[in-house]
Amino acid sequence: MRPEDWRKLGLRDDEYDRIKEALGREPNHLELGMFSVMWSEHCSYKHSKAVLKTFPTTGPRVLQGPGENAGVVEIGDGLAVCFKIESHNHPSAVEPYQGAATGAGGIIRDIFTMGARPIALLNSLRFGPLTDERVRYLFAQVVAGIAGYGNRIGIPTVGGEIYFDPCYQGNPLVNAMCVGLLKTDQLRLGKATGIGNPVILAGARTGRDGMGGASFASVELSEETQAPDIQVGDPFTEKLLLEACLELIGRGDVEGIQDLGAAGLTCAVSEMASRGGTGMEIELAKVPCREEGMTPYEIMLSESQERMLLVVAPEKEAKVHAVFKRWGLTSATIGRVTEDGMLRIRMHGAVVAEIPARSLTEDAPVYHPEAKEPTYLKSTADLPLAAIAEPADYDSVLLKLLASPNLASKEWVWRQFDYLARTSTLVGPGSDAAVIRIRGTKKGLALTADCNSRYVYLDPYEGAKIAVAEAARNIVCSGGEPLAITDGLNFGSPEKPEIYWQFRQAVAGISEACRVLETPVTGGNVSFYNEANGEAIYPTPIIGMVGLLEDATQYCTPSFKAAGDLVVLLGETYDELGGSEYLALIHGRVQGKPPALDLAKEKALHRTVLAAIRQGLVRSAHDLSEGGLAVAVAECTFGNQLGAVVELARGDLRTDSLLFGESQSRVVLSLPPEKLPALQTLAAQEKVPLRVIGRTGGDRLQIFVDGNRSIDRSVAELHTAWQEGIPCHLP
Amino acid sequence: MKFGVIVFPGSSGDLDLYHLIKDVLEAPVDYIWHEDTSVQGFDCLILPGGSSYGSYLRGGALARHSPVMAAVTAFAHRGGLVLGIADGFQVLTEAGLLPGALYTNAGGRFHCHSTTLRVENPDTPFTRNLHRNQLLSIPFAHGEGNYFVDPATLQQLEENGQIVFRYADERGQPSMEANPNGSVSNIAGVCNKTRNVLGMMPQPERAGEAVLGSTDGLAIFLSILKYWEGRQ
Questions:
Q1: pLDDT at residue A591 tops 70
Q2: Ranges of each domain in chain A
Q3: Measured in whole angstroms, how far is the alpha carbon of residue A120 from the centre of its chain?
Q4: Residues of B within an 8 Å Cβ radius of A
Q5: Contact assessment for residue A715 and residue A640, using Cβ atoms and an 8 Å cutoff
Q6: pLDDT of residue A1
Q7: Among all residues of chain B, which has the CA nearest to that of A427?
Q8: Mean of pLDDT values over A534-538
Q9: Chain B residue numbers touching A479 (CB-CB < 8 A)
Q10: What is d(CA A123, CA A118) in angstroms, rounded to the nearest whole number?
Q11: A507 phi, psi to nearest 5 deg
């Protein structure tokens, strides 16, 4: 082997030495290829592993934490929820429709691999500004790709979030989350156990597509980046594979199962063997291929979609093949589980690779890169409020904020998703969190994905904390008790000390928030190298959270429901404009510190809101986030076109902070006047500040500050601005 | 009476229909596999929504060649009740059991939202619990629901009372604005000449429980049950 052979595959010189040590000899070309994909950042987490170990991952409900295909938490009645978020950023930058579609396909497989029936999809998307033509193309195609896959497979896409910022111009983010439901006794793991057990490959045939995708995901994008053939998604085959696998798991016919994603067969055989403490003998001539003459290298590294690897007991082998046949799928026994811990890959009997399974997985390199506080923070940290002129016309500021694509209605997107499939969606997209019922029980789940990456950019630790808190607040405002999170950690190159510092700080912030809010991390995904032409994206740790409603009918939504209700603000407002949408949009500044977050106060707020919803005190609840109080109240008026009159006292705050500041731990509620004393009692117990700020009614939103009319517009006009915010940029 | 829900590869509305009939209506129901060649023992066949064969080629174009479709066709010709919903509607037009064709939505995109349907003909086994011009709130979710027939066939459909549902606005007018997908004459559902086969793009099984926001879809299933009672 010459240095260019391994360097071409993305391996470092010292990594090559390590491979020689693991094998006790020089690797052949196939073995080198297998190491290169398994030791890529995407598969090995070599730059993140050490830091991820600091996450809180345990809790009374956690059945399966990180390390498997997805996390699992118990919800009672013998049921559990399985969920995970995953990125498909680089493929989506190159071929947005297929990139997004196969992103959805991959995460769905991760869920049914665990024995869970997928019941909901969410997505978290980031693009450059919609004023750019290529961004509009990427945006429309990514949405179409998610719809094309999710809709065809019959899993509702119930929620998500989208932001637009120049930092994502060359490197969009496409993160997909899937949630599944299983009986706790049907949990299956990706373990190869039972010496001599047959190893079965099922689903789509193996082709030459997606070779080296894992490595492609592990470099920065630039003009010169050579993209591999992007995989093409086939939701129809996936639907059949899903039904066949769940039928087999339901009947107890499967010992271990794992989907084939990044690094294809190489990853599946090495991870299953490694987790089971076993080895495998694989005969590549038995792999059903799409084309003739595929080489061992191509078969082992292909990332063809919609494939599953199963380990079954010998007496079940024929039955398993029969079930796949019934569903119209190809399946073949391609090998056996062995006890020596070696992966022995043969082609027509001849050994073509022989590698200790663990050397590809657990024994992959772990790096502790240098971390250094970014210099930009010195210039962004200080926000001289005196230099920010207060606007003369608050009406027009509110209209501009509502029309900002970051805050505007995302209906143009979610109308393209079948969010009603499975007839279980109680609250669909466009609310704080989605709520789905669990048929056959009283229970429901609240689901959300959240991250304000501008906050994380300005303070990675505090910003990441806020992402967790906001996700939990969204769950709580929908009537759910936050259970656990999955994280989609999207960053630039970890080999740059300033990026690595952002990563470490963000993980620490998530960890602290998850500890206090009692929502353990059950798994997730790290996507590094999100850079285009040397510029990194804002650090974007997306928090996917699942919450539980013991009684699904006790959900809550943001819309005002009845005229004459009181409008109540819980929480305290400060002069906090740092990192706000208002500051960016109106004043063109991405500056200051994100709003402060006191997690104990946040938790007290959650207890108050949840108790108020469960006791039937409130008719609506909406968390305050981007755009602050004025935007939140405006959003509450839209659902039923029911206005409100709000009267605020400024105290020593600036008026713009009061209206548009994004102070944390705040929620706006509406309730019948006679329920106020009970709500006051709850808030007092938890020491949560409570102010009655107005009353619902009429068809206008009027906000008075110290008796002066600051905002006075018809709900219809505000609603139109909000609804048109995205479509007005599109043809 | 017993309902049969046909399961094509790629169907997904089958699970929801089964749930509605069994748990909400508490009526007998069973799945029918696409490779079955007999539909004996069933009194009403439902072709569900979803994406049979991935909606590849055209929605319904491949499923109509399933072995079970010969039995479905014979059943329909004998006067048996057949209801096709969304993808199932596409299969019925492809199989020639219903007139017309379903094109890609005007605008080219998939849409999911609630629609208002106006009952055009209450004199079918599927609508006898409804009255003319009654408005129903039933959601739809499809990318290929743009119903087309030529003008001559349209006139025949009108004359024969084969137009069962139209998309309408809140005032009950089948206006341009209320037409979500470009369908000819706002048609949302049609039946055959003998009125025992109905196809509709909106999905009544998604409007069958108050918790889901509408129970207007139940009337269609209750009509079928009432019709069957009357026949006994």
A1: yes
A2: 1-39+189-364, 376-729
A3: 13
A4: 9-13, 15-16, 19-20, 23, 50-51, 53-56, 109-113, 139, 141, 143, 203, 205-206, 208-209, 211-212
A5: no
A6: 85
A7: B212
A8: 96
A9: none
A10: 14
A11: -65, -40
Alpha-carbon dihedral angle through residues A680, A685, A687, A690, given to the nearest 10 degrees: -10
What secondary structure does DSSP assign to A599-668, as a single string? HHHHHHHHHHHHHHHHTT--SEEEE--TTHHHHHHHHHHHTTT--EEEEE--TTS-HHHHHH---SS-EE
Closest chain B C-alpha to A239 CA, distance in angstroms = 6
Q: Do A422 and B143 touch (CB under 8 A)?
A: no
CATH architecture, domain defined by A1-39+189-364: Alpha-Beta Complex (3.90)
Q: How many CA atoms are closer than 13 Å to the CA of A426, on its beta-carbon side?
A: 25
pTM: 0.96
Chain A residue whose CA is closest to B207: A423
Q: Provide the residue ranges of all domains of chain B, joining segments of one domain with +.
A: 3-231
Q: Exposed e or buried b for every residue in A511-526, given b needs 16+ CB within 10 A?
A: bbbbebbbbbbbbbbb
CATH topology of domain A376-729: 60s Ribosomal Protein L30; Chain: A; (3.30.1330)
Taking the C-alpha atoms of residue A607 and residue B223, their distance in angstroms, rounded to an integer, is 47
Question: Tell me, which fold does domain B3-231 have in CATH?
Answer: Rossmann fold (3.40.50)
pLDDT of residue A212 exceeding 70, the answer is no
Per the annotation, the verdict on A42 as an active-site residue is yes
Q: How far is B226 from chain A (nearest CA, A)?
A: 25
Go through chain A and tell me how many residues it has.
731
